[in-house]
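Page 37, top half.
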Amino acid sequence: MASTDGSGDAHGELANLAWIEALGALDPADRARLAAHLRDGCPACLDALRGGNDVVAKLAHLFAPAEPSTALRARIERASARRAPSEGAAARRAPRRVRIASAASWVALGVAAVLGYAGWRQAALLRDELSSARAEQAGARTALAQAETRAEALERDRAELSELLVAVGAREARGIALASETGAGARAFVTGERVVLLVHDLASAPPERTYQLWAIEGGVPRSAGVFDTDAEGRARFRAKLTAAIRDDAVLAVTLEPAGGVPQPTGPIVLAQR
């Protein structure tokens, strides 16, 4: 019987046998030798056996067993039946150290596979985290841009309302009411050459058409600009003419081609009452 004192070539062989036992590849004689050696409490061989078991456990998670197909099973059985007796005898006569080396190489490949899979998995996780971080960063940039756009719109609206309040509340401002037969209405506030028009319930102009405000003085119309209403039929329109609007001026709104015209051509949709 080989030495079991934990030293020499025999012990090195037993340590390899411990690794191979984890794979279930030992023949009965080698298994009995290893069992007797382990009963003596060799710590090195016990560690080798535990290490082999750990590798096999990790490999079991990576590679699920698969049953061969019926056709493949039949081919394997036919090939086994045709093996020459000399091949089987040569295999039985193969030195134990060769078998041990082959099994140890298989274990080494298993370890490399485990480590390779772990590295690949870690890299994949890092790539996923990087992709998520980039997506979050892009989303944050988009949200910031949208917030800035809303803030700018609110600031413009606040400034416009402030100007409207100043114009409407001016002591010298004249209030003028406009109306239509359809129920739409407006109120204008005139101060010098400036006019503010607040419209309600006036449907949006048709395609390629616009509303145009006029100040008619002595029968002669002066354009105060073009505007359109929103989806709720409202508009807040401000204009500044080249000269002050006379106190006897009459205000009117007509429907004109897009961009406006020098003189009114379309129907009157709002007229001063």
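Page 37, bottom half:
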Amino acid sequence: MASTVNVAVHPNQFPDAFQRELIAGLRQRSVPPKFHYLSYLQSQKWLVLHNAWSPSRNDADCAEAYEKAFESATNLLLPRRLQVIGLGCGSGQKEARLLTLLAQNGKGLSYNPCDVSLPLLLSASEEAKRAVPNMPYTPLMCDMAVAEDLPTVFYDLQDKPGRLITFFGMIPNFEPEKIMPKLAALVRPGDLLLFSANLAPGPDYGAGVRQVLPGYDNPETRDWLLTFLFDIGLEPSDGGLKFSIEDVRDFKRITADFHFAQDRALTVYGERIEFHSGESLRLFFSYRYTSETIGLLLTSHGLEVAGQWISKSGEEGVFLCRLRQNS
């Protein structure tokens, strides 16, 4: 008989909290990112998009940057018993490679993949089980964006003295001033953080962001994002999806907004929500940083960069971080 997987669920993913957040997002005309990953269909469409456009899937040099970062982290980690926490793990392929390398270097491992998507959590668990058979693991279904108690949650889950935290490709989809304090609060003295970000290539920041725009404005991304709207009852004739680049403080981000071509009323969990012709609904945004601005963002939150690996294309970077000694 096939084995079962026990998934811990944070209260922010319970039905009442879920429904309140969805309705609030629709009323505020900005859909929280997690609502694009929840169903099996959405997760599958995101994987199609990821495989088609992600540099880590399509750029051998980018994959090598991750490999070098994994090797460096393994060499720096002294504890023989280690807890790996995969924040926003997605399908877990990067984490599985990291776990394999750690196990090959004699580390006794436990693993806590963490994501908002149950289908992706289960995929990450399968990847981890294939990578390191018999390793104890506890998947956590949780939304980092609204969780205020993550240090306590992971302390309760911990059964190993050393910790390695991963945060791969997640920072672009959060407001930096909201997510960075939460991330930094998780890193304790002796922990290591492996952090990656999508970057704007080249010396001209604006030109670099424009260069990567086709990685977002494409049929795979449109198909993935529109799935959410069609699931809640919108029709293709209700409007269209438009991508743009906008300035937010010192940063630039790529956005996707659904623009309504006609009035439309929806009933979501018993709540009536009206949209009017000419209005827009924010479905997605992705900040694009540079290696310099990422470094400043990390250090401004008490983290020091022990190593960094930037792909030759300049489109992705991996950063190995730890708590600054005087923090």
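Margin note: The radius of gyration is 20 Å.
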